[in-house]
Design goal:
Number of helices: 1
Shape: elongated
Radius of gyration: 27 Å
Order of helices and strands: HEEEEEEEEEEEEEEEE
Largest sheet: 5 strands, antiparallel
Number of strands: 16
Structural class: alpha+beta
């Protein structure tokens, strides 16, 4: 048989095998998503499952009760067919949700993080420096200040401020240039540091 024909047949055979494997992989993934439909959420437990859409919640001063789904043997349970208990779900720190149903018990861990920094809109500037301030919360012990690095296309830490101070001075700036800032609040609880969500960036010049 001609070598060219043999090579062509080998290529076709290899392509068929690759296509077959690709189809099998796609089918497997599709079946998994259809059966559970919880791949993008946080799942706790084995037989009795707690499904949370998130595991971080901002401090509000009120009890935090996450949105959830309860499944037993992959079947979602109706409200009233299980009991829910919360632990440490008001203050910043680690919290728990305990669910009991039909003799089974499962615990889901989530955390309450400090409130995000709120920029006040107040700032002053000279040709080479900018000073800006933010609203302080008594639950925030310090915050990290970030400036956007346009060359690297990322937020870069430029300083830290300890509460109750609520302002920052950025020096050595170029005149006539826009600068973008953001901040993350921090709280230390029982030797563990909890970080808030990065606040919405604001542009100063």
């Amino acid at each position: 048989m001609n070598k060219t024909i043999i090579a062509l047949l080998a290529t076709i055979a290899a392509l068929i095998i690759c296509l077959t494997l690709s189809v099998i992989i796609v089918i497997d993934k599709t079946d998994m998503k259809k059966s559970d439909n919880i791949s993008s959420q946080f799942v706790f437990g084995d037989k009795l499952k707690i499904v949370l859409s998130d595991i971080e919640y901002e401090y509000t001063g009120e009890e935090i009760t996450p949105e959830y789904r309860i499944l037993l043997d992959k079947k979602e349970l109706d409200e009233g067919s299980y009991s829910v208990e919360y632990k440490n779900n008001t203050d910043i720190g680690n919290a728990q949700m305990v669910v009991s149903a039909e003799g089974y018990k499962t615990t889901a861990d989530f955390c309450i993080i400090p409130p995000a920094i709120r920029y006040t809109g107040k700032f002053s500037s000279t040709s080479s420096q900018i000073e800006f301030s933010w609203e302080n919360s008594d639950k925030v012990q310090s915050c990290i200040i970030y400036r956007f690095d346009t060359e690297k296309n990322l937020w870069t830490e430029i300083g830290r401020v300890e509460s109750p101070d609520n302002s920052y001075v950025d020096e050595g700036l170029l005149p006539g240039t826009d600068y973008s800032y953001s901040a993350v609040s921090l709280a230390d609880i029982d030797g563990e540091t909890f970080a808030g969500r990065m606040c919405e960036g604001f542009v100063l010049m």
